[in-house]
């Protein structure tokens, strides 16, 4: 076990000349690897200042890549300094009625409009047949 760093200490290392990442509770100084990273240095720099474990795992790194990490290990992260993950919960919203028409009027119109159209069609048919 190496030195224990806080999130703020690690977050201060966020430049191309000094880049540290947090992956699986461990801190890595990847500054020397920025130029060699297959995904480019922007990918690593965008993962600074936070727990990059999910970003790292989502890519599906090879076992070779994972074994290379040992060369860049500088210490561990104080887990109490990393904010807990909060799941997104959509806000509760009332049913949205775009035109603000009361729903019962809409239901009545859905019933009456077809009846009126049918009545007009029957009336036209009846009237034209009488001529």
Beta strand %: 15-25%
Distance between the termini: 101 Å
Order of helices and strands: EHEEEHHHEH
Which ranges are low-confidence, i.e. pLDDT below 50, for 5 or more consecutive residues?
A: none
Largest sheet: 5 strands, mixed
Side by side, the strands of the main sheet go 1-5-4-3-2
Please, what is the average pLDDT? 85
Structural class per helix/strand content?
alpha+beta
Fraction in helix: 25-40%
Count of extended strands: 5
How many helix segments? 5
Shape: rod-shaped
What would you report as the Rg, rounded to the nearest angstrom? 32 Å
Topology at a glance:
Blueprint (H helix, E strand, L loop, with lengths): L2 E3 L1 H5 L2 E2 L2 E6 L2 E4 L11 H6 L6 H7 L3 H6 L4 E5 L25 H28 L1
Parallel strand pairs: 1-5
Antiparallel strand pairs: 2-3, 3-4, 4-5
For the structure shown, list the relevant keywords:
131 residues; alpha+beta; 5-stranded mixed β-sheet; 5 helices; 40% helix; rod-shaped
Word description of this protein:
By secondary structure, this protein is an alpha+beta fold. Helix content is about 40%, strand content about 15%. It has five helices and five strands, in the order E-H-E-E-E-H-H-H-E-H. It has a five-stranded mixed β-sheet. The protein is rod-shaped. The model has no long low-confidence stretch (mean pLDDT about 85).
């Amino acid at each position: 076990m190496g030195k224990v760093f806080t999130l703020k200490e690690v977050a201060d290392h966020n430049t191309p000349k000094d880049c540290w990442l947090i992956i699986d509770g461990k801190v890595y100084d990847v500054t020397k690897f920025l130029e060699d990273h297959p995904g480019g240095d922007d990918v690593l720099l965008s993962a600074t200042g936070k727990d990059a474990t999910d970003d790292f795992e989502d890519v599906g790194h090879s076992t070779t890549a994972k074994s290379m990490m040992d060369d860049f290990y500088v210490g561990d992260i104080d887990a109490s300094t990393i904010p807990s993950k909060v799941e997104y919960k959509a806000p509760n919203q009332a049913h949205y009625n775009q035109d603000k028409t009361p729903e019962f009027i809409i239901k009545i119109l859905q019933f009456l409009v077809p009846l009126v159209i049918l009545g007009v069609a029957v009336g036209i048919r009846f009237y034209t047949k009488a001529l």
